[in-house]
Each structure stands twice: as C-alpha cells, then as structure tokens.
C-alpha cells in the first residue's frame, strides 16, 4: 500500500494489523481520486472510519489542506499515526480515537465544515445514508462538499438521497465506489 500521487507520492503506508479493517487498494484509490480530483486547491476532509488513514493521507498529498481522521480501534489509530509520520506534515492531520457518532457531534459543536468526506465503514455496519443526512443536518458539509463511499456489492446505495446529488457509481470487483455532492 502506498501514496499514489501528489506531494507524498510513492511513500509506503502500513496496513492495520489483523482482519478488522481492509485497506483500499491502490487501484481503487487511484480511480477514486481520478473521479473526485484528482488534485485539490485546499479544503478540509473528514474520514469517519479511517482504518490506516490512506484515503485522507492521499487527499492531503493531492492538495487538501487539513484532514480529520476518526477511528475507534486502537490498532487503527496507532497505524494512522505511523502513516502520518511518513508524510512529515503531521500538522495537516487531526487524529481522533472515537466512535463515528460521537465524533460527528463533537465536530459540529466546534463548527467544523468539510469539503470532502470519506465513508469506508466496516461492511457489516453500513449506515451511510443516515450518516450523510446527519452531517448535512449538523452543518458539517461545506457548500461544495463531495461524499465518497466505498462499500461492497451488498450495500446497494441509492442514487436518490434527499439533500444530495448523485455523481457516479463504479464497480471494482467486490468494491463499489459511490460519489455524491451536497445538493442545493
């Protein structure tokens, strides 16, 4: 696993030990960023199920100014910290060991807003549509926000989600990328 492109391109990243998380493959990550970017001019990203941190690190490498990474597993948080160290830009990352629901409440209380949000939850615990709605209702999404969802085939995310515009959906084997934009 590596950072595909940008300021940190080519640097190797660690995967979270064990079977509790599954890292996004470099192929899927590259395809994802070709759809949503591929490069950014600042902005903030949020990853509620950060795992190894690879998606947020890739986003910062490609121009996102600051990334907030959330995960509730100790092993994931340790791996994220190790991977952020590889960037030599730790000040551009905030790592929080929290349950996603609690983290969202805290971020809303702080008045944070995000231009890019990654949803890559454990496949058995996908509540993406409800979580997208919660982010919108709490004012956590900037007007230009993009939502990137990485799921398995069984998730079957709908095209029509109130408050969001469907952008695109692509299949990569067992992985499905679904991308939305905050609606007007």
From TrEMBL:
CDD domains: AdoMet_MTases. GO terms for molecular function: methyltransferase activity. Keywords: Methyltransferase, Transferase. InterPro entries: DNA_methylase_N6_adenine_CS (IPR002052), RNA_MeTrfase_RsmD (IPR004398), SAM-dependent_MTases_sf (IPR029063). PROSITE patterns: N6_MTASE. Pfam families: Cons_hypoth95. This is rRNA methyltransferase. Transmembrane segments: none annotated. It comes from the Bacteria. NCBIfam families: 16S rRNA (guanine(966)-N(2))-methyltransferase RsmD (TIGR00095). GO terms for biological process: methylation. The lineage of its organism: Bacteria, Bacillati, Bacillota, Bacilli, Lactobacillales.
